[in-house]
Prior knowledge:
Largest sheet: 9 strands, mixed
Distance between the termini: 53 Å
Helix content: 25-40%
Structural class: alpha/beta
Shape: globular
Strand content: 5-15%
Radius of gyration: 24 Å
Number of helices: 16
Number of strands: 17
Amino acid sequence: MARSPILRRSDVSLYNQVEGLIKNWITDGTLLAGSRIPSVRAMSKKLSVSISTVNQAYALLEAQGHIEAKPQSGYFVKRLTMVNTPAFKSKAMPTPRFVKDSSRNLDIVHSCSNEKLVPLGGAVIHTSLLPTMSLQKSLLKVMRQEPVKAMRYAPLGGIYELRKEISKRTFDAGYVVDPEQVIITNGCTEALNLALKSCTSPGDIVAVESPTFHGILRLIEDQGLKLLELPATSDKGIDLEAFAEKASKFKIKAALVTPNFLNPIGSLMSDENKEKFVQLCYKHNITIVEDDIYGELYFTPTRPLTLKSFDKQDKNYLCSSFSKTLSAGYRIGWVIPPESEKEKVLLFKSTNTSSTNAALQMAIADHLANHSYERHLRKLRQTIEKNFTLITATIQKHFPEDIKITHPRGGCLIWIEFAPSTNTLDLFEKALKKNISVVPGCAFSSTGKYMNCLRINAGVAWSSEIEKALIEIGNLAKTC
């Protein structure tokens, strides 16, 4: 039997020791907000203390607001009071415009890859949360069994075994696709690049949610397209009324959107709004380029559907990758284009990168087929959700009181809105001097908006270092 952590010979009373133990479990994420804690009788037996001692400890915890009793159900960890939900609503750009000098954000982006910094900036899942060893086994296996195939150029569309595994997974996302329709790419960025190239021409208007991923701004600038930033809210995603109004006013050629856990605000569109959005795009002859890179990182009971699942006319593109769930460094993504556009996408692929690493494609295909990818995803989602709870609690305790903070139902990002007078670019620079990476809001708009906003990465390995870095950011924010 495990030794009880309660000390009989101590200056601290038994019930205070039980109280402290439960507090520690809540703080370190062992007990999540909303979860049931052991019953009084079970805790009494587990810690070898009396029932009255546990009752005293639970009464104290309840009075302090850490736990709550529910009739006929027991005690539960009290959920944090959510601050100003929905936390964020952006404003529309009045007219389309060419993107200029998006490279100004490169210093910010580069800081996110600096391994010497506390990683609260980049939207990257910490390697300790990923199946590194099983992926390595798969890579060694394919190199041993099929060395010639692994060393050759992969077929233009990708290794068939991987395309088949991706095809199997589309069912949970709400649609079915033939493996031959899946085109493997060098990450999601190339997938988005190929999709945009095949459905637009220089000078065309592309609508995006605002704020949006800074890499999308660079893609649109690089292809000579006009950008139209549309308002979005952190609870519902893109504003459909604003989209319909702009679609009637301007000739929008494509909409590049992330309906499931938008980077950076984490919004999730409802199925009803997804279907309405697809129908609006049909009405105005707008092609959808969907970025579903965070679709597997959901905390909802089931995987959220894609816009592609509502695309009954096969007019739209879906892009994603394994960068957030298996390995960012493998750079394995994919695009599923309309059947009519497949050859055009392959043509652009042939002149863009020609091929995607064969050995890494084979390794991921083997991993998906022979390892428990679903079990890994469940564990990863639980860890990130726990991080959300821990990070949110730390932010609410140590950041300025007038902040607004998002509470996403998936993804790995938290968006914080400070008072209008706060300059998060200044905060970014001060944090760098403290060896902490964060991303200021101005990186997510072509016009440098959201200067009082900040993106925090929750895909971290929680530690005292992470907690101290968050406290430091909160202190710095009070000076910016």
